[in-house]
Each structure stands twice: as C-alpha cells, then as structure tokens.
Amino acid sequence: xxxxxxxxxxxxxxxxxxxxxxxxxxxxxxxxxxxxxxxxxxxxxxxxxxxxxxxxxxxxxxxxxxxxxxxxxxxxxxxxxxxxxxxxxxxxxxxxxxxxxxxxxxxxxxxxxxxxxxxxxxxxxxxxxxxxxxxxxxxxxxxxxxxxxxxxxxxxxxxxxxxxxxxxxxxxxxxxxxxxxxxxxxxxxxxxxxxxxxxxxxxxxxxxxxxxxxxxxxxxxxxxxxxxxxxxxxxxxxxxxxxxxxxxxxxxxxxxxxxxxxxxxxxxxxxxxxxxxxxxxxxxxxxxxxxx
Length: 292
Ligand code: NDP
Known about the structure:
By secondary structure, this protein is of the alpha/beta class. Helices cover about 35% and strands about 20% of the residues. It has helices at about 25-35, 50-60, 75, 85-90, 110-120, 140-150, 160-175, 240-245, 255-270, 275-290, and strands at about 10-15, 40-45, 65-70, 85, 95-100, 105, 130-135, 155-160, 180-185, 200, 230, 250-255. Helix 1 runs antiparallel to helix 10 (about 275-290), helix 5 crosses helix 6 (about 140-150) and helix 5 packs across helix 9. It starts with 10 loop residues before the first strand and ends with a helix.
C-alpha cells in the first residue's frame, strides 16, 4: 500500500488533454480509488501543445505518480519521457505514463484494454484469430498491435485514407509477428467482410455521439452469425452498427469493456493494487446511463 494513504498528501495522477474532452476516465479512476481506500486524486489538466514540455516538468516537480495522455499529446510526449514499453515503442504513441523513482515510463493501454475485454467479456483469446479493423487511426493502431502481439494470425486494415492504412499494415508486418494486409475503403462502396474473418472491429469514429445514426459502410449481409462484431465507440455503447450486426445474428462487443480495461491496467500500474474492475464498470455504466 502506498505510503501516502496514511498521510495528508494525496498521490496525484490525471490526464493531460487539449481541449478538455468529455472523457469518462476520471469517474472510473476516482470510483476505484474510493473503493480501495486510496488517498489518490485524478486531475483533468488542459495543456496547450506548446506547453507540453513544461507540463511534463511540472509532473516531475509535483512528484505525480503518472498521467494519461489524449490527443494531441500521445505522440508529442515521447521525447520528454525516459523510457517506453516495447508496445508503446512499436505504436509510437503513449496514453499512460508511470513514474518509477525519478524515471517516467511511457505505456499504451488502449489495445491491452481491448484484448482484456475480448478475453473477459466474450471469452475469446486473440491467438489464431483473423481480425478485420475498420480504420487506421490511434485506436486501430493500438488494438491491431496488441492483437498481433497476442497471437492473431491475420490482420486486415480497411481504411478510407490509403496512405494511413498502408502505413499501419506495413508497421504490423515489419514490427510484429502477424501477417497484415490493407484494403482500400472507397466512398459509397460497401466493404464486404471476408468469409474467413473471425472478428470485425469498427475502430473509426463513425457512430460517435452526436452522429448516433451513422454506420460504417459495410455490406450488412456479410455480417454472419459466427462473426464477432466489435465497436470501439463508447458513447453510445450500443451503436447503430452493433444493433444491425445483432439483427443479423452476429455476436457483438461494445467499447465500454475496452475503456474499463485500459483504465484498470493504468490503475494497477500506478497503484500496484488489483483494480476493482466491477466498481469501475459500474461507474462507467452510470456515466452512460446503461446497465453495468
Ligand atoms: P483517429 O482520428 O486517430 O482515427 C479515426 C479513424 O476513423 C481513421 O481511420 C479515419 O479514417 C476513420 N474515419 C473517421 N470518419 C470516417 C468516415 N466518415 N468514413 C470512413 N472513415 C472514417 O481517432 P482514434 O483512432 O483515436 O479514435 C477512433 C474512435 O475510437 C473514437 O470514436 C474514439 O472515441 C474511440 N476510442 C475508444 C476507446 C475505448 O476505450 N473504447 C479508446 C480509444 C478510442 P481516415 O484515416 O481516412 O481519416
């Protein structure tokens, strides 16, 4: 148990963001600190891009235990850290910093959160799976790298911008054991999910509040009952896409498990205490007004 839990001085963690995003992580972490009787605080701190270096110096000066990073700081923070985890180094992006002594170590828990959710929420191990990702942004990058490192047998990246999609497929082929390919996603051309795919992941922002009726351009008849369809969109958790997949008999997995998973991993890295995952899940469900 950290020394500060018996003192007046709280341990500090939080998030550097710009601008302040509607991120529910503060509710998940604060609920977990309370449940574990930890004298810790999670601060939402707006940091302008040009002041990131000063903010990291402040983090060191305040002896904070760590920090989360959101866009636009995930890549820019790297030169200010002392070390990267192997996954963060491959992804080239950091969403969680952990202070160890006077060293700041950069990690990325987004993809690990997805893998944990896959294992715990639907009982699927990534090993040997053929996975299709719609999107090639930060979320797709983190998830595909972790799925590759966890033994997925094939990854297909489907993306609107060819350059970004090709770049991610190249990264997976060169830096991970998986075999990866890229499929262009042209406007108004429905993407048909290959019949040998096991898992389809919407890793785009299509369907995010307030555009809740928007759906990725996918051939709905290719969503078979033996396919697992996942969506990263946390708000709303039951997206139009997941509802359409469910209507075709496919199994579905929403983005809340991933959000809880990445928060739980960060909590454990910072505090060294097992994360009260059910408390965190309920706190998140309350934010989104759904059942935990
Ligand atoms: P990025 O901006 O990095 O990437 C967005 C991706 O979506 C790109 O591939 C982009 O394609 C694609 N895209 C966006 N709009 C369209 C469109 N109209 N048609 C086709 N493709 C489109 O965002 P992130 O990867 O960081 O985030 C993506 C989503 O993941 C967000 O909704 C975010 O909330 C969610 N997320 C959820 C997490 C969770 O824990 N559940 C964790 C992290 C993120 P292109 O390259 O062509 O622009």
